[in-house]
Amino acid sequence: MSAVGSVSENRVKDPVTLVIFGASGDLTHRKLMPALFMTYLQGLLPERFVIVGVARRDYDDATFRAMLSESIKTFSRLPAKEDAVAQFVEHVRYHRGDISTPEAYEELKARLEDTEVYPGNRLFYLSVIPSLFEPAVRMLKQTGLIAKPGGPHWTRVIIEKPFGKDLESARTLNRALLCHLDESQIYRMDHYLGKETVQNILSFRFANAIFEPVFNRSYIDHIQITAAETVGMEMGRGGYYDEYGALRDMVTNHLLQLLCLVTMEAPGDLSAESIHNEKVKVLNATKLDIRKNISDAVCRGQYSEGMDSEGKRVKGYLEENRIDPESDTESFVALRLSINNWRWAGVPILLRTGKRMARKTTEIVVQFKVPPLQLFQQVECDDDVCDITRIKPNTLIFQIQPN
Fold it and tell me: I want to staple 362 with a disulfide (CB 3.0 to 4.6 A). Which of 7, 32, 227, 242 is the partner?
């Protein structure tokens, strides 16, 4: 159901330099570079592009390319043939620098000017801790690495989650960024929205006269949105994760985006502004479904030492590297929400996410109501014992991952 134009229509034509801050981290190796490699294979990158990874570790170009080659072979969803990977990483450079210091930006500017045979557009990807977002953007601007909007070349800055720890810190960060950037230059990234199944939710709902009429409280019993991970604190993520936890790491961005797509009203058109407005409306109507106590609607937990899905012994959360042994940060959280509008009033919305779960999956399960009169039954057998039960209700499942 996806609608994708030809390569010639979608290909970026002008030269582009992509600078990744935090290039030694988990996100770069597991997500960014494999995704860029697949984009390269599909012919969507310009002929003249350079990727510059910036981090504090003491690598050179050859070491960094070798590491990325292994990551691409491991995590690419398209076949990663040796020659194709080698051709791709030839476009990659590594620049050692501590982006918390002003000198790093002057050195980076000199490196870019030396690297860019064809100066053009620049894209800065901030895969760093949130406390560095504003200083990094400020120093990029002061060093002259941010182009003015409307000029011959564009500059864009991509910011990864989390965008603040709460509403006030998010607003403070937004105001700070707008002191140095135009709104058109800021891209607040949620990579879940790039998954094909997620992109197709709106077309599934609003292009189908069969399903849209039954997406409401009269026909739907409840909705479950699950993001389960089998991993723990790999690639040194403990320090970041212990500060934010499962709620801020997954729920306030990824899961709420999925909730919006499956519950929002139809936008007037498919422009970013129209979709944004409908998301805001449904979020404003969304509340914790507290019956008596907050514990009725929220469950938090941490994984303990044990065996993973492959039978290997793994540490408990409190034994992980860079985790405070007294930490009460959650590695699992489940919420029951309600949406106080005409379409969804009374329909429980269940969100849950966690680390070290039995299997890796991200899915949206829409469970429909049972008919008011059950005319049909089914036989269920357990070994030699059989029983007559009601037919289970219908469910609609959006399987986001595994793909």
Answer: 227
